[in-house]
Amino acid sequence: MTEHAIQTYADHHSEPEPPLLRQLWRETHLQLLMPRMATGHWQGRLLSLLSHLIKPSSILEIGTFTGYATLCLAEGLAKNGHIHTIEVNPERESRIRRYVAAAGLSSNVTLHVGDAGDVLAELVGEVWDLVFIDADKINNGRYFELVVNQVRPGGLLIVDNVLWGGKALPDYPLKANDHDTRAVRAFNDHVQHDPRVVPLLLPVRDGLLLLRRTAA
Ligand SMILES: C[S@@+](CC[C@H](N)C(=O)[O-])C[C@H]1O[C@@H](n2cnc3c(N)ncnc32)[C@H](O)[C@@H]1O
C-alpha cells in the first residue's frame, strides 16, 4: 500500500474538512505559489484536536501563509481566547483577514505583518498555552529560544516540517550550501536534550514535532 493511499484512507476516516477551510484550500491552490505550504485537511484536523484538548487562552503562530492553520488552531480556543499570528509577506494580509472575518474570528485573531524576530520582541510580556512554529525553517532554533520561556508549564510547542522532505535524516547526502537542512537537523537534535521540553516527533506529512513544556 502506498503512502498516498494510506493518507487518503486516513482523510476519509477523519472529521471532514470544514467548508470554509475547503474553500481556503482551493483558493490557495488556484492563486498562490507553493500552495503545499498550507497545512491542509488531515494535519489541520490534528491541530484542531490538539487545540481542543488544551483549550488555550493564548496561541502564537509564527508563519501564517493563508491562515489555514490559524483557523484550525482557533477551533479549540477557550472563551475569549486569542491568537497572535505573524506573517512577513504583506501580500498575504488581505486574504488572511478575509478568512478570519468569514470564520467570525476577527476579535480573536491579531495578525502581525512583519518579520517574526521583530514581532516577537514586542510580545515578550505574553504567556503562551500553544505555539506553532511554521515559518522560515532556518530560524526554527532562534524562534524556539525566543518563545520557549514564555510557554507555560504543560503548554505545547508544535514545529512543522521537521523531516524536511526526508533531508533531516542523517544519511541523506547534503549539498554544501543547504543551510536550511543543517538548521532543521541542528534544531531537532537540540531539543532532545533541552530540559524545558519533552519531544515527540510525529512522522506524519512532513514531520510534526510536539514539544511539551516542562516546569524547568
Ligand atoms: C509554511 S508557511 C506557513 C503555513 C501555515 N502555518 C499553515 O499551516 O497553513 C510559512 C510562512 O512563513 C512566512 N515567513 C517566512 N519567514 C518569515 C519571517 N521571518 N517572519 C514571519 N513570517 C515568515 C512565509 O511568508 C510563509 O507564508
UniProtKB/TrEMBL annotation:
Gene3D superfamilies: Vaccinia Virus protein VP39 (3.40.50.150). The keyword Magnesium does not apply. CDD domains: AdoMet_MTases. One of its GO terms (molecular function) is S-adenosylmethionine-dependent methyltransferase activity. InterPro entries: Cation-dep_OMT, SAM-dependent_MTases_sf, SAM_O-MeTrfase. The keyword Transmembrane helix does not apply. Transmembrane segments: none annotated. Keywords: Methyltransferase, S-adenosyl-L-methionine, Transferase. Pfam families: Methyltransf_3 (PF01596). GO terms for biological process: methylation. This is Methyltransferase domain-containing protein.
